[in-house]
Amino acid sequence: MSVFTHVDFDQHEQVVYGYDRASGLKAIIAIHDSTLGPALGGCRMWNYTSDEEALRDVLRLSRGMTYKSALARLPLGGGKAVIIGDPHTGKSEALFQAMGDLVDSLGGRYITAADSGTGVNEMRIMAERTRYVAGAGQREAFDGGSRDGDPSPSTAYGVFMGIRAAVQHRLGRSDLDGIRVAIQGVGQVGFHLARLLREAGARLWVTDILEANVQRAVSQLGATAVAQHDIYGLDVDVFAPCALGAIINLQSIEALRAPIIAGAANNQLADSSLAETLRRRDCLYAPDYAINAGGIIDVCYERTGGSVAELKAHIEGIGQTLTEIFQRAEREGATTCAVADSMALERLRSGASWVSAGTPARTQNWQR
Ligand code: NAD
User: Fold this and answer.
1) How much is the pLDDT for 205?
2) 241 in ligand 1 pocket by Cβ < 6 Å?
3) Domains in the chain, start-ordered, CATH in brackets?
4) Is 209 a pocket residue for ligand 1 (Cβ < 6 Å)?
5) How many Å apart are CA 323 and CA 70, to the nearest integer?
6) What are phi and psi of 152, to 5 degrees?
7) From CA 151, how far away is CA 192, in angstroms rounded?
8) Whose CA is closest to 111, among 119, 103, 101, 102?
9) In a mutational test of the pocket of ligand 1, which residue from 244, 268, 291, 301 has the highest number of ligand atoms less than 8 Å from its CB?
10) CB atoms near residue 2 (< 10 Å)
11) Which of 179, 231, 340, 349 is the most exposed, having the fewest neighbouring CB atoms within 10 Å of its CB?
12) Which positions are catalytic?
């Protein structure tokens, strides 16, 4: 299996394979770019059918983190980790301790966090073996209370700000009162988002494969429940995918009536050419890695010790970034995805100059 000639290699700085005989850990850590700071990205556990599949996933995800952090103006590089194994049956304390040791062996070049198949519990086990873990502790909530390290509320807040920016740009409305939103997936992020939208006066339609999640949104937020396949064709203003990736495909685009797509799910477009299809249909697409950056911003502030007020203000910047993307895409006749990629690279380059001019005070805390 080749790395340097891999189609997704894209000049990764480091790719590390780890195996632990005692626990059976099989993992790959990829560091794509550390120009702006240590590479931070989640640790995914997935039942990959082959090592090749795991390598492809980690390379693509880690490159995506470089773009996401640069666009969100964070002093972070891009990295990711994958554990090859079944997240339902293959977890053990020893496995995550061994993973903690592997992360630690990189001396802080990579900082791990929760992702699909891992959560706060696994982060806490890894934190016994390394300090390069984010999302393992208690945090102050936006309302002044306490919450665990789960960044979902921050992700939802960023998506909410992104929806406001999209509604302003596409519909010329500065408030969300009466705006109709269809949410696909009311799990951790989707439910928080639904509550924020409801508080802002939006009307909600929701679907989920878990009936209990649908019922929670119906009973607590007055949302209307719809069947899974009906969520695309609703006559709404915003479609917010907050479940799975690759749900924007030719079939769903055909059914979609919403003039705006803005949600938390990662990798929403089944293939990158669909950005142009959406542009031609005058459907405003908020690039996923731009709108769902609230979580990584949260994790960054946890590590560097910023206040809740600073964190909120930084997440609110997602709205400004999206407005810039939308306006530039319109001016240049380009897709929002192409503009987001260009802006991420521009911010990576300009960020590189402030990093080389002197380490920002915030990044000194990375070694905690
Ligand atoms: P989650 O698992 O808590 O919620 C996802 C919800 O979608 C679940 O309730 C699930 O039952 C539902 N779902 C799954 N398949 C579905 C389908 N076909 N139709 C309808 N509903 C379906 O996950 P989450 O943490 O809320 O994340 C949601 C999305 O946002 C994911 O794509 C994730 O990668 C992305 N994301 C999350 C964060 C975060 O902070 N949690 C950050 C960035 C991106």
Assistant:
1) 98
2) no
3) 14-65+73-136 (3.40.50.10860), 152-293+322-346 (3.40.50.720)
4) yes
5) 17
6) -55, -40
7) 11
8) 103
9) 244
10) 9
11) 349
12) 80
